[in-house]
């Protein structure tokens, strides 16, 4: 037991002596080859251990900081998502109001160009009956709306006519209804063919224009695919020149003495939000 303790004491003394000697050499600047070699060896052995220990400690520290900050990150992520949602809503509202502003500007421009007296109205309802094509607008008798008044889109295309008037709202019979009839004329200067434009029950997006038979006998009386059809203005019900649609197909009737054309309407029921009621023309 005594030998063991004596050996331990001797080992400790030697280590202390070596460490003290290294410290003295390093402090004094005296270079001894053996001690320099020993110093470098100990440094090379200890350095990787120290670096590994520092790396492990840093990893533990980063992990612990991540655990402590995870609540803050979750809250920050939630706030960012909410802000993105708010921004998306703002963008949608901006686009809606910008489009609405453009539509209202178009309404005003059309009114100035056509020299018509009109009342602007919003579409607030649609007919649920497939055989009855109508819309409901938020203008009525209190606003000066009367039955029979023409209705047009914000771009000036024919929508239909007022069919029923209440105090604060009115129903508009659309021009694609089978009961709707209006006089039409080819806008092309070389033609000016005249006919009656009627709605179809089985094909609400396309009207039929039946050309008056005596008009087909002249060179100016033809109808061609691509022709624009506008209101003829030959009656007191509609002003002249309101766009109706475009010819997409032409057929001959009555042994070639008259023509019948299919008219694709400019009016699109799916996109109508505001209309103009023509009160005077």
Short synopsis of the structure:
This protein has helices at residues 2-28, 33-114, 213-216; strands at residues 117-126, 134-137, 150-153, 158-165, 170-174, 181-186, 194-198, 206-211, 228-231, 243-253, 258-265, 274-280. With 281 residues, the chain is an alpha+beta fold.
Write down the secondary-structure element order: HHEEEEEEEEHEEEE
User: Could you describe the largest sheet, including whether it forms a barrel?
Assistant: 6 strands, antiparallel, barrel
Radius of gyration: 45 Å
| Helix content range | 40-55%
* Strand order in the largest sheet: 1-2-5-4-3-12
The overall pLDDT, averaged over residues, is: 78
- What is the distance, rounded to the nearest whole angstrom, between the alpha carbons of the first and last residues? 127 Å
- Could you say which overall geometry the principal axes of the C-alpha atoms support? elongated
CATH-level-4 superfamily name of the largest domain? Rod shape-determining protein MreC, domain 1
Structural category is alpha+beta
Can you walk through the features of this model?
The chain has 281 residues and is of the alpha+beta class. The protein has 2 domains: 31-115; 116-280, Rod shape-determining protein MreC, domain 1 (Thrombin, subunit H, Beta Barrel). It is 40% helix and 28% strand. The protein is built from 3 helices and 12 strands. The chain has helices at residues 2-28, 33-114, 213-216; strands spanning 117-126, 134-137, 150-153, 158-165, 170-174, 181-186, 194-198, 206-211, 228-231, 243-253, 258-265, 274-280. The radius of gyration is 45 Å and the shape is elongated. The N and C termini lie far apart (127 Å). The relative contact order is 0.12. The model has no long low-confidence stretch (mean pLDDT 78).
